[in-house]
Specification:
- The protein is mainly α and 302 residues long.
- It contains 10 helices and 2 strands; from the N terminus they run H-H-H-H-H-H-H-H-H-E-E-H.
- The chain has a two-stranded antiparallel ribbon.
- The longest helix has 29 residues, at 171-199.
- Bound molecules: 3-hydroxybutanoyl-coenzyme A.
- 3-hydroxybutanoyl-coenzyme A (3HC) binds next to helix 2, helix 5, helix 6 and helix 8.
């Protein structure tokens, strides 16, 4: 079971910045709402000092804090490999990457704090199971090739999801995402380069890469969240300009890009239905096991 409705307490957000712009400050709820709606319609950023509806603030705290937890939890499987990296160069790259993930967590905690969420409350929500982190980090990393696949596919999927968040309506989250995406692209490239090296190695190394791809491909597709029809938060998040592209559309964009990269790498994906559909202009792929997703989210992962 997953717990819905992450409700982290916090004070009231700012009552609007109209005074700062020389306009008389409004305090009437209807005027504040109208001001917020006008900013949304004009695609302007909402800043911490601006008035915002309580539900908008809570939605942002839920998403940003869960994103924060995912960055921090994501450090664990990779951190475990630092002492076992096969060369000094690989150790230095992995150290830098793991430190970056910690930094991403800090940018995101800071963004959530601008919404009056406290770090203690956010950590408490994680530890009591009210807040989630990305289900992907419950899958095991038994080989060095898995470290490369995390970079190539997990960070690749994360970038696909995070680029549109750079245009999120909440200023501090959008700005944090711009920095995070720059670092994520290094993470994705180092994973691809690591795997390219292994693919030029021995037969055993190539088999190790393929095994890691087989292990991670389906869980990676779940990273984009449930199908649009079952995504409880999507329509409101899209109306508020938090989410710019839907879960299913991002998943499709990712699959189309990954197929081309897999060809360069010389690996296959474990999906007999994966093929180009000229009519749709996209790749078809087989049904995703959403029972597995919810099981893993509910703490029953591998
Ligand atoms: N893992 C776990 N839970 C997930 C999930 C996933 N991959 N995808 C969705 N869910 C949860 C949602 O949190 C929500 O549960 P809640 O109500 O308890 O919060 C429920 O499933 C329903 O999903 P919705 O589609 O309705 O939820 P959203 O509108 O919030 O969309 C999302 C889900 C697309 C993941 C969105 O929250 C989002 O874009 N989040 C920011 C991106 C993020 O968190 N990235 C972390 C990447 S980790 C990383 O980068 C580390 C790497 O570099 C190693």
């Amino acid at each position: 079971m997953y717990t819905q409705g992450l409700d982290i307490p916090g004070g009231e957000p700012g009552a609007g910045n109209s005074a700062a712009k020389g306009k008389p400050q409004t305090t009437e709820p209807a005027e504040l709402q109208a001001d917020f709606d006008a900013k949304m319609a004009a695609d302007r950023k909402i800043e911490p000092q601006d008035w915002m509806p309580e539900a908008y603030r809570k939605t942002l705290i839920r998403q940003i804090s869960q994103h924060d937890h995912s960055e921090i939890v994501g450090m664990l499987p990779e951190g475990n490999w630092i002492s076992r990296a096969p060369s000094l160069k690989r150790k230095a790259i992995l150290l830098a990457k793991v430190q970056d993930e910690g930094g991403h967590g800090l940018y995101l905690s800071s963004a959530a704090e601008t919404l009056n969420a406290s770090r203690d409350d956010m950590i408490d929500a994680l530890q009591t199971g009210k807040a989630k982190y990305f289900s992907i980090f419950n899958y095991s990393t038994p080989t060095w090739a898995a470290v490369g696949v995390i970079g190539w596919l997990v960070d690749g999927a994360a970038i696909m999801n995070q680029i549109p968040l750079c245009r999120c309506s909440y200023g501090p989250y959008a700005r944090a995402m711009i920095r995070i995406c720059k670092e994520e692209s290094f993470h994705q490239r180092q994973g691809l380069e690591l795997l390219l090296n292994m693919m030029q190695g021995t037969e055993a190394q190539r088999a190790m890469v393929q095994e890691a791809v087989n292990r991670w491909w389906r869980p990676v597709l779940m990273m984009f969240g449930p199908p649009d029809a079952e995504s409880v938060h999507s329509s409101q998040a899209q109306a508020w300009g938090i989410k710019r592209i839907s879960n299913d559309d991002l998943r499709q964009k990712f699959i189309d890009a990954a197929v081309q990269q897999a060809e360069v790498l010389g690996v296959g994906f474990p999906d007999p239905d994966l093929k180009w559909n000229a009519e749709r202009g996209h790749h078809d792929f087989c049904a995703i096991d959403w029972d597995e997703f919810w099981n893993v989210v509910g703490g029953n992962g591998p």
